[in-house]
Amino acid sequence: MEFKTVTELNDSLKGCVERDGEECRVTDSSVLAGDLIDRIVYTAVHGESAVLRNEARAIIKAIANAQGIRSDSIQGLYEAMGRGECEGFTVPAINIRGLTYDSARAVFRAALKNNAAAFIFEIAKSEIGYTEQRPVEYTACILAAAIKEGYKGPVFIQGDHFQINASKYEADKSAEITALKELIKEAVEAEFYNIDIDSSTIVDLSREEVIDQQRPNFEVTAVLTSYIRELEKDGITISVGGEIGEVGKKNSTEEELRAFMDGFLNIVGERFPGISKISVQTGTSHGGVVLPDGSIASVKVDFDTIELLTKVAKEYGMSGVVQHGASTLPDDAFHIFAEKGASEVHLATGFQNMIYDSDSFPQELKTEIYEHLKTAHKDEWGEGVTEEQFLYKTRKKGFGPFKKKMWDLPTDIKTAIGKELEDRFVYLFEKLKAVNNADVVKKYVG
What we know:
The chain is an alpha/beta fold. The protein has helices at residues 6-11, 29-46, 50-66, 75-82, 100-113, 125-130, 135-149, 166-171, 173-189, 210-231, 254-268, 303-315, 334-340, 349-357, 363-376, 387-394, 403-407, 411-431, 438-444, and strands at residues 17-20, 23-26, 69-72, 91-95, 120-124, 153-163, 194-198, 239-243, 277-280, 321-323, 344-347. The chain folds into three domains: 6-66, no CATH class; 73-351 and 419-444, TIM Barrel; 355-411, no CATH class. It contains 19 helices and eleven strands. α2 (29-46) packs antiparallel against α7 (135-149). The longest helix is centred in the middle third of the chain and has 22 residues, at 210-231. The two termini are 36 Å apart.
């Protein structure tokens, strides 16, 4: 599937792409729509050498740019939402942990069916590790998927939960901030023009005053936002998100939001653009709460909190609040996010579950992955935890070690899984009212 040499890779472009360094002209898009882009992106991920992988990634970027596809920031749209100039829909932010190229293709197909342009591809700091997808690889897969499906326009790629590790921060504050800066720099260089900073992990609830509880959070968010602004280039203002409530903990309050924003703005002032959105806690948890039989417990989202805090967020010029941990919620919950004004909702585990639990996913491969998890992550199998609970919680960590085996699944299997994902994306776009917004995105993003 992959090209074996740089020469072979570049020779494959003859007759369909004329390339001069970072610039290129597509002379026959029908060839790309065949299996050529499939082979290029496969090489970008699985090529035998870094030189070969980097060349494939550069080709993908050049072709994407030539076809009107570009990685961009959603900042302009979120500023318009903050001003009240556009509303009524919630932006889906989709974490792709495995089958990344095929899953992204399904998202683009769903978007094209719905005339949608306000949606985000994202990957969290933790996911980058256990799915073995560095930012530059993730971007290549997303852009290649857009090329394959004939999508045009801005593509929003986001670093999700670029999070401060509380214990490491306590041990050495400077080292932990430096480590996160290094990840941010890597992501921005890979054209992640949307970054969610999560220092909610160092909120200190032992302090009496709310502003003092939030102080470590807004101080670190200000430092990292300033750093992100230093990395900006080409006239792009990176969309930066903050977070006041650690997902899975107590629900956020208006007092916390105001304390965070007042403290943040007191530091930042008007020196550079601040944050465009704020993540809050409203009752969910990442991946859901797993019951002993492996099923997911019902969760009640506090939509009144979403509505209230979105109104407060807009007072500070932000687009609204962000809901995490939503993909495992019941279907009858999704339409309420748009009704209550949530600007963004993060969706991850539900799509992972669809891949693993699809009737098309080979049972022998699933068994192999599960046996690997039982050995490689047996230290995470706590006392009293059933096998079903353990596997549900850890199977996300199967995507990295088995990335190539999943990519090498027969085309008919990946096509069937992709169709299931596409149908789900269509459903969620409709429920979140994230449809027919291509003109709005063109107006505010370009």
